[in-house]
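Convert to structure. Protein one:
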Amino acid sequence: MSNIFIDGNEACGAGAIAAGCNFFAGYPITPATSIYNYMLNALPSEGGVCLQGEDEIASIGYCIGASMTGKKTMTATSGPGISLYSENISFAIGSEIPLVIVDVQRLGPSTGSATKGADGDVNFIRYCNTGGIPVYALAPADVRDCYLLTINAFNIAEKLRCPVFILSNKEIALTKKSVNLNSVKLPQILDRVLCTPNDHFLPFATDYDDTAPPFLPIGSETLVRQTSSTHGINGYITIDSKEIFDINVRLQKKVENSLDEFLFYDELLKPDSDTLIITYGISSSSAIEASHMAEKTESNISVLTLKTLWPVCEDLIREKAQDFKNILVIEMNQGQYVNEIKRVLPEKNVQFLGRMNGTLIKPSEILEVLTNENSYK
């Protein structure tokens, strides 16, 4: 198959189909609406279901209900919709319900600017659930990533039984590129582990303290309990402090201990370079171009593009940054992930370049920061 002309939203839809998604629900919102349009055209022919909810709250609720029956589900929205999703995100985390959520970020705060891009939801995604349980969030840097990372997002959701975020961006989502999707090396498609029905089924019991419980769909012959309240391994509401502690620790461990398996990044490391740019999303394109431009002045600038944002890949960041004197973090916001980099690299000279006004950071601006001794020291 030759290259096709496709944008990031369409690639997310194609990735979802390739991963086995068979249920989508969403509510129109710029710049995520074309994901819904794609799924509306693609899912019925695959035997799946695509619904438009009456609002964002209903849409994620439909997805959660469908996932409880065993469907592979996805929804898509932007920042204002994530705000409305938050209660059900907590429900999906606490009750271990697989779900992929595409957040095509736009300029905030509040409803912001629907046609301007930003990366302003990075911290909100991490902390939008009550309890602060860790989440998985993947950040595509281009159209190809939208396809591949969506597939991986479904694998994570199915294996860990949790919601997984795709942190896209208006610029990536709505910019068409020529891509050969057939040339993309795909991971093995994962499905959630099923439990053999039995009279003693415990819906949240596991053999280890860092794994998801085996799954039985609601509606089967075996009674399956689900609740958004604090519960024990039997699914009943509990006030037993030890049981509550054990489950919450397991919810944390199953995410954090899976980082090595689902760690995604790109690197452009130059010899004799003392500066490393750490970035993600659309800003990585500018960083890579700045690195190439710097070669003309005989300067070497290296780039680390993070694609797994949450949980923080601390070991990777330390490993890649160890030989560099200066670290420049670039984000399309006023400084969110840079605080994680400073936490992980307290001994390094970490500087920041970012903005949140709807315009992209240019390669020339990156070079200006790197060559201005007054702004970078």
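Protein two, convert as well:
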Amino acid sequence: MRVTLIAVQSLDGFITRHDAPGAGFASAADQKHFRAALRGFDCGVMGRATYEQAQADGVPPPTPARRRVVLTRTPERFAAEAVPGVLEFTDAQPAEMVARLRREGCRACALLGGAQVHSLFLAAGLVDELWLTVEARLFGGGTPLLAARTDTCLRLLAHEGLGDDALLLKYAVVPCAG
């Protein structure tokens, strides 16, 4: 199963603006790209805070064709919302969860945040590609793309302008040389 980390950030590396949750700063061009890109994935993984923000933002619910898995330390808290094979809550380790999704037929997984989830998946060596929209904004603070130190090497696959001021960068995660 291919795992693609998809994120939008400010030019100075923040996926949230100051203390405001979510990516409400994302341009209309990035939002259009994001919705279109998600059509190419049969599952999405996110952390609890990202899930709760998506709920508050009115993001459409998952479907059997596009399953959503939420990583949380307290999956029992969300038992009433869970729909097996559609909306799942788990405290499984990323490698265990990816292996299960693969066994269950998922082929393309969108890793949707936040910073802790990004870091967990990178540390476990589970991210194949990173698609990053860089918005022409500077925040000087907020949630960084990653919550933990890493030394991940990337190879640029593609780049394109989104709208007038945003840049979409697509990278492959590759072994680091030396």
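Strands lie at 2-10, 43-47, 67-71, 87-90, 108-111, 129-135, 153-162, 166-174. Residues 2-174 form a domain with the Dihydrofolate Reductase, subunit A fold (CATH 3.40.430.10).
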